[in-house]
Amino acid sequence: MKRIANYFLKGLLVFVPIAVTIFIIIWAFTGLDKIFRGLLRISIPGLGILATISVIFLIGFFASNFVGRKLFGLVEKVFTKVPLVKLLYGSIKDIVEAFAGEKKKFDKPVVVSLTGGDGPKVAGFITSESLVNLGLDDYAAVYLPQSYNFAGNVLLFKKDSIQSLDIDSSKAMSFIVSGGVSG
Prior knowledge:
By secondary structure, this protein is of the alpha+beta class. It has two domains: 2-100, no CATH class; 109-177, SH3 type barrels, CATH 2.30.30. It is built from five helices and five strands. The protein has helices at residues 2-40, 47-63, 66-79, 83-100, 169-177, and strands spanning 109-113, 121-128, 139-145, 152-158, 162-164. The chain has a five-stranded antiparallel beta sheet, covered by helices on one side. Helix 1 (2-40) packs across helix 2 and helix 2 packs across helix 3. It is flat and about 60 Å long. The two termini are 33 Å apart. The model has no long low-confidence stretch (mean pLDDT 81).
């Protein structure tokens, strides 16, 4: 009986992550496909996603040339002037650029001492090495992602309590987000 329970638990450990990942991917793709098929008035399943990918590719291509950069710069200027739109657009743009932009923000993994010395430490990423604009010359901003969550906090630490980690930032993020299980 113990062996059967062990097989079942091992099966769960393999099956659940695969099944949940596949479910989320299918859910996201079918949801996006349904939305974009409705917007584009397309009746064939799958064409909404294909159309979306094509439009994103074309926007990227267009944004890579002079005229496109000027046009999207103008759109961005308008978006950053409207009060509520400015907050929404700015936040989304910052998050996307932090992970995938040319100036990735989560590329400096660190460990920070909370109490100094040998006390508890937290892992995070330096997002701003200079806080002179806040009047905090000897401080840096450190983003601390939360485990199993898409949230986090920015805390300000004295620079001498921050220790750089000599690991790839994606490995550091996996370690933090997995609650220390990964890596």
